[in-house]
Amino acid sequence: MASQLILLVFPLALFCPLSTSSSDGLWAGSCLAVETAGDVLTSPDGTFNAGFHPVGQNAYSFAIWFNKPSCGANNCTIVWMANRDQPVNGRGSKLCILKSGNLVLNDAGSIPVWETKTVSQSPTHLKLADGGNLILRNFEGLILWQSYNSPTDTLLPLQPFNENSKLISSRSQGNYSSGYFQLYFDTDNVLSLMYKGPEFSSVYWPSPWLLSWEAGRSTFNNSKIAILDSLGNFSSTDNFTFLSADYGSKISRMLKIDFDGNIRLYSLKEDGETWVVSWQAFPQPCMVHGCCGPNSICIYIPNFGRKCSCIPGYKMKNHTDWSLGCEPEFHLSCNQTEVGFLKLRHVEFYGYDFNMYPNVTLEDCKKMCSQMCDCKGFQYRFIKAHESDGIYCYPKTQLLNGHRPPNFNADLYVKVPKATVSVYSDTSQDFELQCSNQVQQLERKYSKIRENESLKFALWVACAVGGLAFLTIFLVWCFLIRTNGNSSPKEGYLLAPTGFRKFTYAELKKATNNFSEEIGKGAVGIVYKATLSDGRVAAIKRLIDANQGEAEFLAEVNTIGKLNHMNLIEMWGYCAEGKHRLLVYEYMEHGSLAENLSFKALDWKERFEIAVGTARGLAYLHEECLEWVLHCDIKPQNILIDSKYQPKVSDFGLSWMLNRGDVKYSKFSRIRGTRGYMAPEWVFNLPITSKVDVYSYGIVLLELVTGRSPAMGIQVTDNESPKEERRTLVAWVREHMARAKETETWKHEITDPKLEGIYDGAEMLILVTVALRCVQEEKDARPTMGEVVEILLRHESH
Ligand SMILES: *[C@@H]1O[C@H](CO)[C@@H](O)[C@H](O)[C@H]1NC(C)=O
Ligand SMILES: *[C@@H]1O[C@H](CO)[C@@H](O)[C@H](O)[C@H]1NC(C)=O
Ligand SMILES: *[C@@H]1O[C@H](CO)[C@@H](O)[C@H](O)[C@H]1NC(C)=O
Ligand SMILES: *[C@@H]1O[C@H](CO)[C@@H](O)[C@H](O)[C@H]1NC(C)=O
Ligand SMILES: *[C@@H]1O[C@H](CO)[C@@H](O)[C@H](O)[C@H]1NC(C)=O
Ligand SMILES: *[C@@H]1O[C@H](CO)[C@@H](O)[C@H](O)[C@H]1NC(C)=O
Ligand SMILES: *[C@@H]1O[C@H](CO)[C@@H](O)[C@H](O)[C@H]1NC(C)=O
Ligand SMILES: *[C@@H]1O[C@H](CO)[C@@H](O)[C@H](O)[C@H]1NC(C)=O
């Protein structure tokens, strides 16, 4: 039947070759011309177009793009390109199916720049299918060539990714030519990301310091196939899988390796006009190698991108190029009595270790590094690894790949001349230039940002240096592994395996002794203490009004369960059975900040640590995770305290989970949060952004300092008028602060009496200043949590 139809159509096609916009496709002997605007192929459902797309001045590429979001000349969502590296002229260029069966793209003057090299005895036919696949078939319907088999930087749902596929990033935003990052199956059958520059290459995902199984990958299945299904489930034969955050809905999606080296899954929002990120490989962009040069720290700033900054005592080597990194401002003597160390908190420099020394005291580690002339500093950290727990000292020959990983609770010590330790210990020098064109907006709006030629070059060089660096690390590391024969402490560099799992209801019922010991009650559920079968003590939250389907619940729990930060409470698992929805968390012996503030005397140092830790946890939620992980109910009751008086934020992700769809489009139907901690946006029905959490955090800071609850209001007796009034906590602190110029006693007047006057005046000033900035009415005037962390870490006085 079908062949009869083709037989009918075929002679017609011969007589009137198609050359206009068509979803019928193109027959052998016909062409699409670059000059004719209507010469595009459209998929039957209208989702995709294929045709010539401008990529520069008078430069065109043959491409496939989404028709929605509606696009003009330079804002189309392109998913495939035939000639990304060799654009053709805007006049005289053509894509033609030759009678021989070859599909050829000719530049002006009939110079072929791209071809499928297909041969067919029978006439061939080119058609754009619904999924965005451009297919060349012979007359019998056999597929000769398809664009799905040669992707550029994007993978569409149901497009198989296999051994021969490779996604290669664009050079930059707006320049579609091949960049330096690629996704591929390596020879061990593992789906990997690699930086591949002109001179060096290095794999950066899965984390190179992990063995495949440690990264959750399997090397056994050599069929090497990965696919994203139409509901948002990505799975690969190396056992790597993820679910899109909006898993379950059939919407437009695309998996793309972005020009910044990250892979992201984009979903088209319901409005059909904006792409949002629904999954990404790297929550922390500074993990992608090759941005900042030696002796500098990569930091990620929301709405801006990555930045580099020199470590104290170092200055930028070349003011036009961050990839060259920083050089010392001092001359370092080889005489060990003349050197000292500066501590950089939570900073990690990866690789370049001389060796690793277990169970060494800080003093011995300093001594060791002082004695080695080439030692630039050392990493000193506690590592929890099976059978080899301990403190490890890693003296370093080079300080490269510096950044502040969210889970990193260890310090880096930089070697500087002893005489100048005090000079450099003021680390408040500001972060300078931006390091590259790798700007990706946190808003995850898929917006285009113009880039700059010289920065492009900088990136190129940065990557080259990064590659060399990596090669060296790898060699050094291999050497160390061989000589040491003991790799386990390296495992400490990974997150402890979370053991995140599903529990049965019966199991949890037993663990909580039939839900007998209630330890807390919140807006979303009741919390019970439990002892799991393996002996661990857990806190089990039973959600009150979770009436969503199991698949949706699972997708969200998976998202939340994967968040891993030392200042976020850890989720061990969940239970979804029938109507029951329960979450299993680690249990915090010391209870909440609220309890600690009212019953115990937290000293100043503990309070400051709690302020910093809480900010780090929230910054991670807001800035390094996907956009909708707002907390929306920050208050001392939701900040738990561990045995070392480190704070752990709890209950994150729940407001989203219980109001799916609402939060995503920042239209909350009901007011959430707790009186006293709620930002004005709630009251005035303004858009809800991460700044609502910043506001609540500011109030918590004031409470930490003053020991007064914001819900109560504060009774004041004004000097001028003897009438008694009630003030809000914020107004009360602002008034005292305003008097600061006249008198220094304000600090004493507002501090928590439980502190008995023992506090650090400078830290106190910074906490109050930050708090008041956080509680400004205008949300845009408030800092981001990331900025808060930077400010607090900079001013921490030790
Ligand atoms: C894109 O980058 C490549 C390589 O740097 C360069 O040759 C090309 O001219 C750029 N294209 C555009 C349109 O800027
Ligand atoms: C793209 O540009 C066209 C016209 O230039 C405009 O109508 C459309 O709204 C733009 N789309 C986006 C997503 O900016
Ligand atoms: C794949 O992952 C699942 C769960 O994450 C695990 O149970 C299974 O053993 C893994 N398979 C292989 C071959 O590693
Ligand atoms: C490898 O993966 C494919 C596709 O998922 C599957 O059909 C096959 O059974 C797997 N092979 C082995 C040995 O696990
Ligand atoms: C996702 O796909 C994989 C492979 O087909 C399957 O094993 C897994 O159960 C799917 N996950 C969900 C939640 O459907
Ligand atoms: C910095 O680098 C640029 C470009 O590589 C070079 O032209 C310039 O001379 C360098 N400046 C210094 C001070 O080395
Ligand atoms: C190292 O410096 C100390 C004091 O600065 C000095 O006394 C000592 O002689 C020096 N040692 C060497 C080997 O130069
Ligand atoms: C370090 O010391 C601890 C406590 O003494 C011990 O348990 C551990 O095994 C030691 N680690 C190594 C690598 O020697």
TrEMBL record:
<keyword id="KW-0245">EGF-like domain</keyword>
<dbReference type="InterPro" id="IPR024171">
    <property type="entry name" value="SRK-like_kinase"/>
</dbReference>
<feature type="domain" description="Protein kinase">
    <location>
        <begin position="513"/>
        <end position="798"/>
    </location>
</feature>
<feature type="domain" description="Bulb-type lectin">
    <location>
        <begin position="26"/>
        <end position="149"/>
    </location>
</feature>
<keyword id="KW-0808">Transferase</keyword>
<keyword id="KW-0067">ATP-binding</keyword>
<dbReference type="InterPro" id="IPR011009">
    <property type="entry name" value="Kinase-like_dom_sf"/>
</dbReference>
<keyword id="KW-0723">Serine/threonine-protein kinase</keyword>
<feature type="signal peptide">
    <location>
        <begin position="1"/>
        <end position="21"/>
    </location>
</feature>
<dbReference type="Pfam" id="PF08276">
    <property type="entry name" value="PAN_2"/>
</dbReference>
<keyword id="KW-0732">Signal</keyword>
<dbReference type="GO" id="GO:0016020">
    <property type="term" value="C:membrane"/>
</dbReference>
<dbReference type="InterPro" id="IPR008271">
    <property type="entry name" value="Ser/Thr_kinase_AS"/>
</dbReference>
<keyword id="KW-1015">Disulfide bond</keyword>
<keyword id="KW-0418">Kinase</keyword>
<keyword id="KW-0547">Nucleotide-binding</keyword>
<dbReference type="GO" id="GO:0005524">
    <property type="term" value="F:ATP binding"/>
</dbReference>
<keyword id="KW-0675">Receptor</keyword>
<dbReference type="InterPro" id="IPR003609">
    <property type="entry name" value="Pan_app"/>
</dbReference>
<dbReference type="Pfam" id="PF00069">
    <property type="entry name" value="Pkinase"/>
</dbReference>
<keyword id="KW-0325">Glycoprotein</keyword>
<dbReference type="GO" id="GO:0048544">
    <property type="term" value="P:recognition of pollen"/>
</dbReference>
<keyword id="KW-1133">Transmembrane helix</keyword>
<comment type="similarity">
    <text>Belongs to the protein kinase superfamily. Ser/Thr protein kinase family.</text>
</comment>
<dbReference type="InterPro" id="IPR001480">
    <property type="entry name" value="Bulb-type_lectin_dom"/>
</dbReference>
<keyword id="KW-0812">Transmembrane</keyword>
<dbReference type="Pfam" id="PF00954">
    <property type="entry name" value="S_locus_glycop"/>
</dbReference>
<dbReference type="Pfam" id="PF01453">
    <property type="entry name" value="B_lectin"/>
</dbReference>
<dbReference type="InterPro" id="IPR036426">
    <property type="entry name" value="Bulb-type_lectin_dom_sf"/>
</dbReference>
<feature type="domain" description="Apple">
    <location>
        <begin position="334"/>
        <end position="417"/>
    </location>
</feature>
<feature type="transmembrane region" description="Helical">
    <location>
        <begin position="457"/>
        <end position="480"/>
    </location>
</feature>
<dbReference type="InterPro" id="IPR000719">
    <property type="entry name" value="Prot_kinase_dom"/>
</dbReference>
<keyword id="KW-0472">Membrane</keyword>
<dbReference type="InterPro" id="IPR000858">
    <property type="entry name" value="S_locus_glycoprot_dom"/>
</dbReference>
<protein>
    <recommendedName>
        <fullName>Receptor-like serine/threonine-protein kinase</fullName>
        <ecNumber>2.7.11.1</ecNumber>
    </recommendedName>
</protein>
<dbReference type="GO" id="GO:0004674">
    <property type="term" value="F:protein serine/threonine kinase activity"/>
</dbReference>
